[in-house]
Amino acid sequence: MGDLLGVAVLGAGHMGADHIRRLDKVVSGARVAAVADPDLDRAKEAVAGLDGVTVHTDPLAALQAPGVAAVLVASPGPAHEEALLAAFERGLPVLCEKPMVPDTTGALRVLEAEARLGRRLAQIGFMRRYDAEYRRLKTLLDGGSLGRPLMLHCVHRNVSSPPGFTSAMLINSSVAHEIDAARWLLGQELTAVTVLRPASSAGAPEGLVDPQFVLFETEHGALVDVEVFVNCGFGYQVRCEAVCEAGSARIGDEHTMLVTRRGSATEEVAQDYLVRFADAYDREVQAWVDATRRGEVSGPSVWDGYAASAVAEAGVRALETRGRVAVGLAPRPDLYAEVSR
User: Fold this and answer.
1) For the segment 223-242, what is each residue's pLDDT rounded down to a tens digit?
2) DSSP code at position 102
3) Integer Cα distance of 34 and 56 in angstroms
4) Which of 3, 70, 76, 102 to pair with 306, CA 20 to 30 A apart?
5) Quick one: which H or E segment has residue 239?
6) pTM for the predicted model, two decimal places
């Protein structure tokens, strides 16, 4: 196993366990070398059957474990800053799930820490950039055949929200994906946010503002709207339509199995993001492993993670104040001058 990239996975919950499986069964060129989770039994269960893996409750101990040459951060968002800074201190390449850091102040600290290094070490886990449909849409828009993009219409629906999910998390956890996707697809920063609050669904937990309608403005005059509905009850759906000067293009309508019986037809609807974006996650982690083995860092940058946190923070303020909130970004360091694709 000496020629494989040894990865420490921080977090063994829903996302972390799936990444452990992916590194072991799907991705080539890497192996799980260490796992850390506050729940030791959960960590042991996630690596059952894997050889040569050390298990820890302390993430910093996992970074120091034998054979660790890279880090995959899949712990809850509030733990990301400490993990990223520790990885930077040790010179370890990192793939960090979104949100990079939930609050803008912490995200800025991470940005400044990597900028001081003078080289990129972190890739942020905005996996939609690796989805085949999103990549086709990006290529189409960049090609210019549809003219200048004027609007993006987005839908983000979940079957149900997990326990403890808050109204703010509809924006800083769910819509965070649309924030990055819009910045990437359009090649523009988002400059202002307005959040409208329709009547909450009867299926939403008491006190949760769900659904929400989020409107973003961009630096070059495009508009991005997002319907986010995390207790729709029927499936996981993500769609995006780009409306341009000379045409439009929509993704997210790809059919799975369609079953036709006498008098009816039924289509499968994904129930989970790990199902809908399974291929995107596989591509993302493989690209990260390949780049790391070459001594490179590609994909969404710490700047992208910081910008997403700043926009989401403005969105939460817009939700709370019921007004339009401008997005303020720090100066962009030279390290991130090149747009990440």
Assistant:
1) 999 999 999 999 889 999 99
2) S
3) 8
4) 70
5) strand 237-244
6) 0.93
